[in-house]
Design brief:
The chain is mostly helical. The protein has 16 helices and 2 strands. It is globular, with a radius of gyration of 20 Å.
Length: about 400
């Protein structure tokens, strides 16, 4: 499969299935990311915790996921992104098994922390690798197709967690995720051995590893546009996923429906993202980057308000679907900017982006976990709606200003 790289006119011949393998890894990562959300009421009941206390199982995962980007970005640049992703999946199989075997909530928190740290190797490095082997003009639709795996994984995670909370044990989904990671990791290791040298991009060591890490991240953050993108995705993660984590619990508690049904409703968020992935080429051409941000944020805000205050639970069915469409319109635009904000240090750049996104999630979940006993689930979802709208309006404005500046400069 020929793919034109960004800095070379000659296409890179990739083995059949190279991109599909990464999408499967993203599917496994997506399940692991969101499987805990619908389990919160079950964990709170089994371990005699409040909903806010149970939510720390999501917070520790997000913190570890975000901070570990500071390690995996340079590791991917040094040892080859595809290779690091493959070994990361193998490590995820062990850490997720530890989650399934945790005898107490405290041990579960430790296991989920390590699970977040190992899962950090998958999606951001995959995005960076795709950026290495594709031209900027073709990258957004290709990234969108790759992210179908993550999108379906998020939906499957919410669905599996909700079903397990009602009909199985909370350990069951972790057992299945561990097996999936093991199979995927082995497959990616075999695929890595078939990649051409230019797609592996292994660089010889130069000086101290710590010094290189500090230098690469420092040079990324020194770029003004990189700081804008990183701060924007931090705020997006805090407002959107800080609310999304409590959505299944909100539908369950507010409308007295089973957790499995709540999970099925919220699962539609991922299908909205799937619609974006399938129509990305058209939407990018029709709306442009600033339009995707503007309308994406507006869809998320309107949908979150319907979910928070709708009189009937079935109002949340179209709202969750449209929220997913809106989120991926906004987030994919941020992702495409992340892959290009420092092309010569793409691994570190995308790692910085992911670190900010998941650190923002952990901050948002922690704050909302504290507030939820005072303002309720509807209150935190409403706060998320307002925050995402402000983030999208601001980034859309900055994109238009940047495009105008470039036009004048030319």
């Amino acid at each position: 499969m020929p793919v034109s790289p960004p800095d070379d006119d000659a296409p890179i011949e990739l083995p059949r299935g190279a991109l599909v393998g990464l999408s499967v890894a993203a599917f496994a990562s997506g399940i692991s990311l969101r499987v805990s959300d619908p389990l919160l009421p079950r964990l709170a009941s089994d371990f005699s915790l409040s909903l806010g206390q149970a939510a720390t199982v999501i917070t520790v995962f997000a913190i570890a996921y975000g901070l570990s980007q500071l390690l995996f970005g340079p590791l991917g640049d040094r040892f080859g992104k595809y290779r690091v992703i493959a070994w990361g999946c193998v490590a995820c199989a062990f850490t997720t098994t530890a989650c399934a075997m945790a005898p107490s909530f405290q041990i579960l928190l430790v296991a989920r922390t390590f699970a977040g740290a190992t899962a950090a190797s998958v999606i951001p490095l995959s995005m960076a690798w795709i950026g290495d082997v594709t031209s900027y003009e073709r990258r957004q639709p290709i990234l969108a197709r790759f992210l179908i795996g993550q999108i379906l994984g998020i939906s499957a995670g919410v669905l599996a967690g909700g079903y397990a909370a009602d009909h199985l044990h909370w350990r069951t989904p972790f057992e299945g995720i561990a097996l999936l990671f093991a199979i995927t990791g082995i497959g990616l290791l075999r695929m890595n051995s078939r990649l051409p040298a230019r797609a592996r991009q292994i660089r010889p060591p130069q000086g101290s590893a710590l010094a290189r890490m500090v230098s690469e991240f420092g040079q990324v953050i020194a770029l003004p546009w990189a700081r804008v993108v990183v701060l924007t995705v931090f705020a997006e993660g805090a407002f959107l996923y800080g609310s999304f984590a409590f959505m299944v619990a909100h539908l369950h508690q507010t409308h007295s429906i089973a957790l499995a049904v709540s999970g099925q409703v919220v699962m539609l968020f991922g299908f909205g993202g799937l619609l974006f992935a399938l129509s990305a080429r058209y939407l990018v051409h029709r709306l442009g980057e600033d339009g995707l941000c503007l309308w994406g944020g507006a869809l998320v805000a309107a949908s979150f308000l319907v979910i928070a205050w709708g009189a009937h639970w079935w109002w949340s069915v179209p709202a969750c679907f449209l929220a997913g469409l809106g989120f991926y319109m906004l987030h994919n635009t941020l992702q495409i900017n992340a892959t290009q904000m420092a092309p010569e240090r793409r691994g570190a750049a995308v790692a910085s982006f992911a670190a900010a996104f998941f650190t923002g999630q952990s901050v948002g979940i922690a704050i909302n976990g504290t507030l939820i006993d005072h303002i309720g689930t509807a209150g935190v979802i409403t706060m998320g709606a307002a925050g995402v709208l402000l983030v999208s309006l601001n980034f859309s404005r900055l994109l238009r200003a940047r495009r105008s500046f470039r036009s004048v400069a030319v």
